[in-house]
Write a structure and sequence with these properties.
149 residues, alpha+beta, Aminopeptidase, 30% helix
Length: 149
């Protein structure tokens, strides 16, 4: 995929990121949450996926000592099912490998089988369930993780 690259998220990106966030999640993060993550959270790392000069996805994670946890990942609805999510997830994995991370984890809705298949492709396995994790409908979250070292 030419004309595709990933870079660190900037404040000027938030309008596009918020559109994707609202289109992707029933309880979306606000601009203030993203700004606080970028400005005040020393553990946070956020990125945008750009295709033909348009932000089509974003992802974030926290790295604390040797643990990395994905906080969010989303692709613009018009660009889903094209491999962009996998490109972004692959970027996160390679990014943390360069940071001496030993464990990589995330939570995913138990009903989101498509995302789970992608994560399994990268070696993540179920590690537990967080009951009633999602506030909008009390759906459980499947915790998935992989040892990287």
């Amino acid at each position: 995929m030419s004309n595709l690259f990933i870079r660190k998220m900037e404040h000027d990106d938030l309008k596009d990121v918020l559109f994707i966030e609202k289109a992707s999640f029933t309880t979306p993060w606000t601009q203030e949450i993203f700004a606080r993550e970028m400005d005040e959270n020393e553990y946070a790392h956020y990125f945008v996926l750009i295709y033909h000069d348009q932000i089509v996805g974003y992802a974030g994670l926290w790295i604390v000592i040797d643990d990395a946890q994905v906080t969010n990942i989303a692709i613009h609805p018009d660009f889903r099912r094209r491999g962009f999510g996998e490109k972004l997830f692959n970027y996160l994995i390679h990014y943390v490998l360069g940071k001496n991370v030993a464990r990589f984890s995330l939570e995913v809705r138990v009903s989101n089988i498509g995302a789970q298949k992608l994560y399994r492709k990268y070696g993540l396995v179920p590690g537990g369930v967080r009951k009633n994790y999602y506030k909008d409908d009390q759906e459980d979250a499947l915790i998935m993780w992989v040892n990287l070292q």
